[in-house]
Amino acid sequence: MAEMTRTTTHLPARTVPVTALPQTVGVAATQLRLMWRERRLFWIALAVLLLAGVSVATSGARLSAQAQERHAVAEREARLWDSQGVIDPHAAAHVGRAVPAPVRPLAAFDPGLSDFVGSSVFIEGHAQNPARHRPIEGGTALSRFGGFSAAWTLQVVAPLLIILAGFATMSGAVARERLRQELGAGASVAVLVGGRLLALAMAAGLLTLFMIAVSLPAIFLQGAGAAEWVGLAAIGGAYALYLLAFCALTVAVSGLFPAARTALVVLLGFWAVSTLLIPRIAPAIAETLAPTPSAPAFRAAVTEEAKNGVSGHDPADARLDAVRAELLARYEVSDVADLPLNFRGVALEFGENNSTATYNRHFEQLYAVYRRQEIIQRVFAIISPTIVLQPWSRAFTGTDFNAHLIYLRGVEDYRYRLIQTLNQEVAANKPPPGKRYHLADIATITEDVAYTPRRQRLADVAALQAPNLAILLVWVVLATGLACASALRLGRHA
To answer: Are 163 and 254 in contact (CB under 8 A)?
Structure first.
């Protein structure tokens, strides 16, 4: 028997038998039956699923309310804008209007940053305003299930369930001499380890499918399109890889330590650091290494520079001399009063261009800092796969900062076109004799200036998230390699 055992332990070094796959599946089926008998783990998983379902249902209802509210706001703002009637076009530029942010259907699965960024931007002449009305300011109703979502469950709770289900899968078998018996019965270490890994992976995949399934009604309710379903598939694939890495690590650590208790302590320590600690301290460290200015300081700096530039309100401003001289030379006149156009409108148009360039430069510098912070945070993926899964999940649900930035840039493009249309109306029409301003119907002159929400192409999202996916794949490969090393070690010591 000793010789037989010694011979079978060297099977991994030779060609894998044709029967290895059925044996692996058989081991996996046995492990799944053992997990099913562990009722405590089943009830914990069921409770988590129910809580996640309640959270998703609450999130879906809230998203529907937000969509209705923002649609109503958009209609009200359009009516108010068109009801200004016949006034000075530049006065309308200072009246302004609010542009609400779109509601992301996949936010029911992963709310990401959607509750922490503004949901509306007020547009007006000479200034770019930040987004305001953050949903997180909604108070108790929002915080009832705040932070608990299907995505958070898969990122934090699911790895814990995997660890609890598999920490003793190898070490327990070694301690009870069951591994030696299985090897003596003709099974190879590769089959035993592979079967246990397959069982954990199947359980993790089932949990992932359940979490996505409980999110589907809320996603349907938001009118998700083809892009959302493709994005959800990409999200599901990333979560499958993430949980597979935890499955492989669990099996590997269980085989590396002879005592199940030791394996549990090591795995719980890794889980706490990678899923709870690192995602919280990484942003703080990134902020320290690449600090952003405070909101008041940023606002003061950009506003002061914009005000010190050409505003267009004073046609006699010396900084408009070059524009004035060019127009006088083009039309061969000596006074702006003799120009066939209204120099006030020209000055306003030039000033808007100047202030917009100033705001754009400051905001792009701020966004560059945010990108550096993302790169710094990615370094922590060395010890935490969660740190690269989160941005992938948020990017494909449209709840990351890049999606918010696309919204902000779309609003700014609309603001600039709207304000310049008003300024061009002023420039094209001199006020009648005895009148100070040219008056126009605001609804008529701006009817062709429409706001269309921008959407990022999934190909662009995937390109931006490619480094995170690559790191996640590296985690899977390394974890699987560690599981193989654990199998070889067990084969030598069995």
So the answer is: no
Rg (CA), the chain: 31
State both tokens at 438: 């040219």
| Rounded Cα gap, residues 382 and 379, in angstroms | 6
Using an 8 Å Cβ cutoff, are 220 and 40 in contact? no
- According to DSSP, the residues that pair with 440 across neighbouring strands are 87
Q: Based on the number of CB atoms within 10 Å of its own CB, is 101 exposed (0-12), middle (13-18) or buried (19 or more)?
A: buried
Rounded to the nearest 10°, the torsion over CA 481, 483, 487, 490 is 120
Report in angstroms the alpha-carbon separations of 190 from 102, 185, 186, 486. Answer: 51, 14, 12, 10
Q: Please, which pLDDT band fits residue 10 given cuts at 50, 70 and 90? A: very low
Burial of 403 (0-12, 13-18, 19+ CB in 10 A): buried
Token representation of residue 30: 């046995």
Fill in the amino acid letter for 293: P
| Bridge partners for 122 per DSSP | 98
- What distance in Å separates the CA atoms of residue 121 and residue 129, rounded to the nearest whole number? 7
Q: Is the pTM of this model over 0.70?
A: yes
Please answer whether residues 48 and 157 qualify as being in contact, where contact means their C-beta atoms are separated by less than 8 angstroms: yes
**Maximum pairwise Cα distance, the chain:** 114
Q: Give pLDDT tens digits for 441-480.
A: 999 999 999 999 988 899 999 999 999 999 999 999 999 9
Q: Of 73, 87, 69, whose CA–CA distance to 122 is shortest?
A: 73
Backbone torsions φ then ψ of 123, nearest 5 degrees: -105, 140
Which H or E run contains 441? strand 440-441
The two tokens of residue 113 are: 């940053």
pLDDT digits (tens, 9 = 90+) for 153-185: 999 999 999 998 888 777 655 545 555 555 555
